[in-house]
Amino acid sequence: MLVEQIWTENDYRNFNYLIACPETGEALAIDPLDYKRCLATAKEKGWEITQIVNTHHHHDHIGGNQDVVDATGAKLLAHAGASDQIPNMDVGLKAGDIVKVGKTVELEALDTPGHTMSHVCLLSQTDTPALFAGDTMFNAGAGHCKSGGHPESLYSTFTQQIAKLPDSTQIYPGHDYIANNLKFTLDREPGNAKAQSLLADVEGQDTHQAMVTTLGLEKEINTFFRLDSTGVIDKLREAFPDLPSDPDEQTVFLKLRELRNDW
Ligand SMILES: [Zn+2]
Ligand SMILES: [Zn+2]
How many angstroms is it from 107 CA to the middle of ligand 2? Predict the structure, then answer.
């Protein structure tokens, strides 16, 4: 499996992706908002884009669809429940569906509600798995739920699906928010030395060559995976004095999500 992470340089800080089969050169584009860069990259690599997957319906993820379809004739795939919101979908994806790219690449669709209620992530069926996470999770952070999502669903997606993937899973999110997210982690957990050193590494990095995290690393530096940390809970109590003495993980997640909204 060949992966190109395409940094769009836009204000929303979107990442687009091309995933290609090394044998056939067939490629799948994920959320190709910057269709010019996606088409140019495919051309440069000698790849043919035959499919588009939208992780969800927000405009900064679907806005390049038509131009890519016009240029390549690619089929458009997205969550089956998003067909009212995404024009001209060809295929509706359900949990467990396998998307094949060329001869060698298989991507499993995960049904990951929370940021929106019709959101898919793609999980590669490779020795080292890769998760194309859209706006469900970011490097060091979690998607917001303000545009059609529900934080309780996002909590379930994090704990019941993402956290159970192998620690070696590489995380490819829909946006470059890592530096700001690490600052939130450090606001919540000032003693997190790993987050501190990572922040120094990524501040000023060339986003065209962005660092790719693993789920194992995320569990150390992403507050939304650190729900049983006493440091996180104690600090949360400063903001929410009536937090129970031993809060359950869902309560901690929801309070963190609430704080992050206004942070
Ligand atoms: Zn979104
Ligand atoms: Zn987005």
Answer: 21
